[in-house]
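Newbie here. three chains, one complex. Structure please?
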Amino acid sequence: MPELPEVETLVTELACALGNQKISGLEIRNPSLLETPRSWFEKEIPGRKIVRVGRRGKFISVYLSEGLVLWFHLGMTGQLLLKESLPSATHVHFILSFEDSTQRLFYRDVRRFGRIVLTSDEEEAFPKAVRELGPEPWDWAPEAFVSFVKGRRARIKSLLLDQRVVAGLGNIYADESLYRAGIHPLRRAEEVPRTRLSRLHQSICEVLQEAIECGGSSIDDYLHLDGAKGQFQEFHQVYGRTGGGCVACGTPIRKIKLSGRSSSYCPRCQK
DNA sequence: GAAGGCCTGGAA
DNA sequence: TTCCAGGCCTTC
């Protein structure tokens, strides 16, 4: 599932491939993913240039000329692919074509948890979920992060998944960060020692940075813009390793449920 | 703060 | 045939 590193990888690739390209047309095959009216997309997008591509949390922002932003959230199974055509056109919901390219940008999403939004470039107009996002992980001052978390009673894993606390973490990188910091996912935030919370902030930044350098994790559906797979799944230490031995102590990795979500951890290393 | 709903393909 | 995966949202 695309989290911060996967989205960041796509954004870099999109910026490189689409910068200054003029959009010649769009095709909407499934309007249910659109959060703003279909007619607005159809009227406003053709003819505009792509001036910048950015990211906030797991949201991709495609800045268009004359003050518009096209937002993509990939949900669980969303993919953005830049190709002349796709081998399989199933689950393709949205397509952009360009004036000076034979390639088109395909938005494909099997489970349709993603969404596509068109807004003005004024912050008050951004999607609510974007406006409410917490800081990017590395924009948290470490001491401020520790103090904030110390004041919360929720389970630590739930806090990490809350996009209003820190933007961009999902199940994979929350589990990996907690493992590196030696914190049990069910531990109440307020009872984790400050030194460990400081280590957690550092673990989050490190694991995300390493994943970005690997082009993200390809578990089910995530792919680069050209369809290639990411590589960081090879380096997961707990996620997807239930029953396997902890890389540090050999204890089998355990899986538990936390408000409907699975959490993988080492029962010996994480307290 | 917890739980259910959306959604589909693949595994059990 | 049933269950499971989990982004985010709504509801309790």
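Moderator note: Helices of chain A lie at 4-18, 38-44, 128-131, 142-150, 156-161, 171-181, 194-213. The mean pLDDT of chain A is 94. Thread marked as resolved.
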